[in-house]
Amino acid sequence: MENPVLKAIYERRSIREFTDEPVPRQYIIEILKAGSWAPSGLNNQPWRFAIVTDKGLIAQFEPLTKYKRIIQCAQCLLPVFISKKTMYHTVKDHQAIGACLQNMLLCAHALGLGAVWLGEILKSAEEIKRLLGLSDDLELMAVIALGWPARRNQKSKRYPIDELIVFDG
Ligand SMILES: Cc1cc2nc3c(=O)[nH]c(=O)nc-3n(C[C@H](O)[C@H](O)[C@H](O)COP(=O)(O)O)c2cc1C
User: Fold this and answer.
1) For the residues of 114-125, what is the DSSP string, one character each?
2) Which of 68, 82, 87, 166 has the fewest CB atoms within 10 Å around its CB?
3) Whose CA is nearest to atom 13 of ligand 1?
4) Three-state SS for 149?
5) How many domains, the chain?
6) Residue 90 in contact with residue 79, Cβ under 8 Å?
């Protein structure tokens, strides 16, 4: 695929093993910026971001998910929140957060980094907010685990497109 956007969409994979190399600050900011350029209803931009790079703090996320092994090797965690006071429509605001998260994953991929969207950790949303000392306005939507990929060429599958088209004509 020649088009760089399509190439990134098709080649991005969830990366769950990272090297010990830290992620430069400017790359982290680029990922947040890409997230913030997602579309949102009324352009209300409901997303808010936390940056967790302190090793001791990252370790405190380990007991909060069954994906402890991903946290253990992540060089950075990016908890993504929705700001309740910016919201105007529950479904549309959550869709905007999904678009933001996908932009972040694609940006990480474009920078040669590896990332995975952690949803299971939402069961510990309140603990994470307490750990970071954040206000009640913020509700955790996902945590992106980030680092330099320890392995490349991860495989994934999708249903054939014919099976997904429910009306045509
Ligand atoms: C809402 C959501 C929640 C997810 N939660 C987790 C998770 O908790 N742990 C994990 O390892 N991967 C998680 N993933 C990643 C998916 O497993 C992954 O995107 C899917 O298997 C397709 O693989 P690919 O991203 O490599 O194409 C999540 C993805 C989404 C969109």
Assistant:
1) EEEEE-GGGGGH
2) 166
3) 118
4) strand
5) 1
6) no
Tens digit of pLDDT for each residue in 76-135?
999 999 999 999 999 999 999 999 999 999 999 999 999 999 999 999 999 999 999 999
**In a domain? residue 111:** yes
In a domain, 161, yes or no: no
pTM of the predicted protein model:
0.98
Range 3-7, long-range pairs (CB < 8 A, 24+ positions): 4/110
Domain that holds residue 42: 9-151
Distance 118 CA to ligand 1 centre (A): 7
Tokens, residue 91: 């479904």
CATH code for the domain of 72:
3.40.109.10
Residues 146/35, Cβ–Cβ less than 8 Å = no
Q: What is the pLDDT of residues 37-73, one digit of tens each?
A: 999 999 999 999 999 999 999 999 999 999 999 999 9
Say if residue 1's pLDDT is above 70: no
Specify the pLDDT at position 152.
83
Span from the CA of 12 to the centroid of ligand 1 (angstroms):
12
Gap from CA of 20 to ligand 1 centroid (Å): 22
**Residues with Cβ < 8 Å from 141, sequence gap 6 or more?**
47, 80, 81, 82, 94, 97, 101, 122
The label of the residue with tokens 């967790």 reads 52
